[in-house]
Write a structure and sequence with these properties.
Layout (H helix, E strand, L loop, with lengths): L9 H11 L2 E5 L5 E5 L2 H8 L4 E2 L6 H4 L10 H4 L9 H11 L5 H5 L2 H15 L8 E3 H6 L1 H11 L6 H12 L5 H24 L5 H7 L1 E2 L2 E2 L2 H32 L1 H9 L4 H11 L5 E7 L3 E3 L2 E3 L4 E5 H5 L33 H18 L3 E3 L21 E4 L1
Parallel strand pairs: 2-10
Antiparallel strand pairs: 1-2, 3-7, 4-12, 5-6, 7-10, 8-9, 11-12
């Protein structure tokens, strides 16, 4: 099976893969092969297996020159940061960054996020079309995470456009190699400029903290600082955009659950957890590699072969969830892998949840007459199979 690089039917493809088995070979862009894993239990086993690594040096296709230059997934598999490191090196990089993401530090950001949400809601009303419609993905779901991450990292306003364009290109698996190269170069240049500015004018932001980070005589190299800042930007905004996007669409298409949340019959945590299960913001995350031959859910994966983990598939595994395709925040079992699992679980997960817990009730308290301006089935998906969101979230204020 060849995955659609535009990602317009993520769950349809996942269902087709699952029907063929829990671990199935698929073709990625460029015709490269990988094993796609959709089974929740198999993914848990995979992500806790020392014989599986994110270190690209274990990928036979890369070592034998089969990966073409300009391959759109290349930044997902090469680099010097936490996302692509394995084993002891990953633990070292994560240990240096972890102090910036403690529960105390995350909780202290709540007043800042509340102000960002309030300002964003004020701005939404200035962008209404003549028929009182507005795209909430662009005017609400996007500004809140990017401004939060920007404030966290100390990003100046003049760098935002390049960061947004480059980050979006990373998730668009249908982008041309030429367009990708330009936008990714712009992202890297903006991150490099950010780090340069913080070296000259350090502050209390995360970028300055990464530059200063040191434990037991160890510290980040210059390249590791750039890579870590880029990972924080890219992972910290796109997944939260999609979490807000999917929660809004789910609640507007299930008004009984929206009413229950507003009345306090279910919690916003219930809504957020069910959204993360039902529509995992990170859908199919590349790549991992078998360091040696392994058996996974009855399938032999040879050493050197690539593995694509489907977190969206895990969320709808029928062996774990009853009626898995149904959005139901009242269900008792909302187990999900929306932020990954194991040693590579997202460090910024508590921050994303905090943003959603502040933003969602504020949106629906402010605009109690929101309705979708288009039929949900007519709204296209955001391009690419890596993340899971909509191209737009058009709503109308009556």
């Amino acid at each position: 099976m060849t995955l659609d690089p535009t990602g317009q039917d993520l769950h349809g493809e996942i269902a087709a893969v699952r029907q063929a088995g829990p671990v199935v070979p698929v073709r990625l862009p460029g015709g490269l092969l990988a094993w796609m894993v959709t089974d929740h239990r198999a993914i848990i086993g995979l992500l806790t297996d020392d014989r599986v690594s994110k270190d690209v040096r274990h990928w036979a296709a890369m070592n034998t020159g089969q990966v073409p230059a300009g391959w759109p997934l290349m930044p997902w598999v090469v680099g010097s940061g936490m996302f692509t490191a394995g084993g002891a090196e990953h633990r070292r990089l994560r240990r240096l960054a972890a102090p910036a993401f403690t529960g105390h530090r995350t909780g202290a950001l709540a007043p800042m996020i509340e102000q960002i949400v309030a300002d964003t809601l004020d701005d939404v009303t200035t962008h209404l079309d003549q028929d009182r419609t507005v795209d909430l993905r662009e005017k609400f779901c996007f500004p809140i995470p990017i401004k939060t991450i920007g404030a966290l990292l100390g990003v100046d306003d003049d760098l935002f456009d390049a960061i947004k364009s480059g980050a979006n290109a990373l998730f668009d698996t249908a982008v041309t190699p030429e367009e990708f190269a330009g936008r990714f170069a712009g992202l890297n240049a903006a991150i490099a400029e950010l780090v340069t500015r913080k070296r000259h004018r350090p502050g209390t932001d995360l970028t300055s903290a990464l530059i200063r980070a040191r434990q037991h005589g160890d510290r980040y190299s210059d390249e590791e600082i750039l890579e870590t800042a880029r990972v924080v930007v890219v992972a910290g905004y796109e997944t939260t955009v999609n979490l807000l996007d999917q929660a809004i669409v789910a609640l507007l298409t299930h008004p009984q659950h929206l009413a229950a949340a507003q009345a306090g019959h279910i919690t916003w945590d219930d809504v957020i957890d069910e959204t993360l299960r039902h529509q995992s913001p990170a859908a199919n995350l590349p790549l991992r590699y078998a360091v040696e031959d392994i058996e996974l859910a009855g399938t032999t994966i040879r050493g050197g072969e690539a593995i694509l983990v489907s977190f969206a598939g895990a969320g709808r595994d029928p062996r774990i969830h009853e009626h898995p395709d149904k959005f139901d925040p009242t269900r008792t079992g909302k187990t999900h892998l929306g932020f990954g699992y194991g040693s590579h679980r997202c460090l910024g997960a508590p921050l994303a949840i905090l943003e959603a817990k502040i933003a969602l009730p504020a949106l629906f308290d402010r605009f109690r007459d929101l309705t979708l301006a288009e039929a949900p089935e007519a709204i296209p998906a955001n391009p690419g199979f890596i993340t899971n969101g909509h191209a737009r979230v058009p709503v109308r204020l009556s």
